[in-house]
Amino acid sequence: MGDAPRCSPFDAFMNVRSKRLIGIGVLVLLVAIAAGAGLDRWRAVKAEQKQPPPLPQFGSLLPSGDDVEVSGRAMCGFCYWGVGGTSCNVVLKTASAPGIVFLSPNEKVNEIEKITGKCAGGKVEIRARGILSRYDGHNYLFVRNFEEVAAN
Q1: What's the 3-state SS for 23-55?
Q2: Within this chain, do residues 147 and 115 fall inside the same structural domain, yes or no?
Q3: Which domain does 111 fall in, by range?
Q4: Which of 63, 111, 121, 143 is the most exposed place for a label (fewest CB within 10 A)?
Q5: What is the pLDDT of residue 4?
Q6: Number of structural domains, the chain?
Q7: What is residue 67's predicted lDDT score, i.e. its pLDDT?
Q8: How far, in Å, CA of 13 to CA of 11, rounded?
């Protein structure tokens, strides 16, 4: 009848093996894509959870002055709101406007940190006097003296 080419058993085995390898490769690729999408979704959710709450700043800023008194709860600006640098720093959270006053680092602030701890948690109320300035939409107080008003 005709001289039709015959496949050897080896050729038939390789043809089936190739199809299996291609199928496995496509399956692995789909799993990798799904895992990558799941990982991206997980990272996005984690990033949203780690966003610090907004800075409690409201109302108008305090006027600048050479001898200004500010009272508020000593808190860590970095730990609570992610502001004030890349490490722990003490800010005063005030009950009225502007809501927050940054303390410019100096020896007096170091003394406040001895009372509150490096990462102040809002348990100590401080009344501080010093030079108050405005910069970039915030108040900054260079503390000359202070007193601990209350501690919880």
Answers
A1: HHHHHHHHHHHHHHHHHHHHHHHHHHHCCCCCC
A2: yes
A3: 65-151
A4: 63
A5: 60
A6: 2
A7: 96
A8: 5
pTM higher than 0.70 for the full model?
A: no
70 lies in the same domain as 142: yes
My answer on whether 39 and 92 are in the same domain is: no
Q: What is the DSSP string of 94-115?
A: -SSTTSEEEEPPSHHHHHHHHH
CA distances from 68 to 23, 39, 60, 131, 133 (A): 75, 51, 16, 6, 10
Residue 99 burial class via C-beta count within 10 angstroms: exposed 0-12, middle 13-18, buried 19 and up: middle
Tell whether 20 and 95 lie within a shared domain: no
**Beta-carbon count within 10 A of 82 CB:** 14
- Which of 66, 65, 124 shows the shortest CA–CA distance to 92? 124
Residue ranges of the chain whose pLDDT lies below 70: 1-14, 16, 50
- Say if 56 falls within a structural domain: no
